[in-house]
Design brief:
384 residues; 6-stranded antiparallel beta barrel; 7 helices; 42% helix
Length: 384
């Protein structure tokens, strides 16, 4: 009798333990099922997606590289432009001193102008061949014929640029775009098919600013122009303008470098990434708007982006949103050093079409959704 009671007690104890274990397992499964359901909802709504943060980090790194690349190129060209200005100033002073002539003696003297331009062409060629630019120029405040109606805006000078530009570093035939014919002949240069003897200064934004500059260091007088059409050609360019002084320190002209839109596009190709191809551009800013009609664009392969109109910027936590012609781009921007003639700040911008980012978001969200859904089903089966 005692043995039967002991057996019954042991059986009840074992049964109670079994029920307790099952109950504990049940609640554990239900807790995990609830957790997986919460994960499923969070993944569907995109809360768990790290794509935005990862995209922001990737874009910030690419933007840092873009800004450094633009700044380095502009600094190098500015330094070379200052060196060219000093060379021209020295040659101008020596040229006039040897002949015991004042600067104004250049006016109405085509032969003297051609002689001076002939002497300065080698310095221009040297500056052009050693720089990451598509052209180089100088103009001085003198003209071969002061009686012409437009004599106040047409100035003597030489403008060399590459024709049939093919690659980076730049290569091609050096064309004589502006200057006296005799100077081109003496230096063995072929005239550009849109050649003119003098430069039209109304087409150089900031020309008057540079000519009225007063200062000690040439770097303080340097200006960059916005993108402007190159007269009688299909190209647009941005120009560096550096003051050219005589021996007394008077500003007698302007010299500098040319960056054509074609060369800029070749210099800054798209950068492939997991979110699509990053586009680089250098654009003046007006408040929260990029002025694309005055901007220089790198390669825009695979997109419809063009240098026209304006692009609105909406700042975000991980990245910024850029809207142009009802098309959305995502990326970052940064103000870079560079004094523009119109006073606008200059921004280096890195963009990627929104479609590439959205694809990555959907892929990440789908992965989280399927994973949490599978976990939920796996927990509900033992709970049942």
């Amino acid at each position: 009798m005692l043995t039967c009671r002991r057996r019954r007690h042991d059986a009840d104890t074992e049964h109670s333990r079994s029920i307790g274990s099952r109950l504990a397992l049940y609640w554990l499964c239900m807790a995990l099922a609830t957790l997986s359901a919460a994960l499923f909802l969070l993944s569907v709504t995109g809360v768990l997606s790290r794509t935005a943060r990862q995209f922001g980090e990737t874009t910030a790194l690419q933007q840092k590289n873009t800004a450094a690349l633009f700044s380095s190129q502009m600094d190098a060209l500015t330094a070379r432009g200052i060196e060219l200005s000093e060379t021209i100033s020295g040659e101008l002073e020596s040229f006039l001193a040897r002949r015991n002539l004042p600067f104004d003696a250049l006016n109405d003297n085509p032969a003297l102008i051609a002689e001076l331009e002939t002497a300065l062409v080698p310095a221009l060629k040297t500056a052009m061949e050693g720089s990451t630019c598509s052209g180089v120029y100088f103009c001085l405040a003198a003209t071969a014929n002061t009686s012409l109606p437009d004599a106040e805006t047409h100035r003597m000078g030489v403008y060399l640029r590459y024709s049939s530009l093919r690659s980076v570093p730049p290569s091609g035939n050096t064309a004589y775009f502006r200057g006296a014919v005799d100077a081109a002949r003496e230096n063995g240069l072929q005239l550009h098919n849109r050649w003119n003897p003098e430069l039209n200064t109304t087409l150089i934004p900031g020309y008057r600013q540079v000519m009225t500059w007063e200062g000690d260091r040439l770097s303080g007088g340097c200006l960059w122009t916005e993108r402007v059409p190159l007269l009688d050609t299909w190209e647009s360019v941005t120009l560096l303008c550096v003051p050219v002084r005589d021996g007394a320190g008077n500003v007698r002209g302007v010299c500098g470098m040319e960056l054509s839109d074609l060369y800029f596009s070749l210099s800054h190709s798209t950068v492939s990434g997991s979110y699509g191809s990053f586009i680089m551009l250098l654009a003046p800013m007006n408040g929260d708007t990029l002025l694309l009609d005055k901007a220089m664009l790198g390669s825009t392969e695979g997109t419809d982006l063009s240098a026209s109109g304006e692009m609105r910027i909406q700042s975000g936590r991980d990245y910024d949103t850029f809207t142009w012609n009802d098309t959305t781009y995502l990326g970052k921007y940064q103000i870079v050093p560079g004094r523009l003639a119109d006073g606008h700040p200059l921004a280096a911008v890195t963009l990627v079409p929104e479609s590439g980012y959205r694809h990555q978001v959907q892929t990440a969200r789908l992965g989280w959704t399927l994973g949490s859904l599978g976990f939920l089903i796996g927990m509900l089966v033992p709970a049942a």
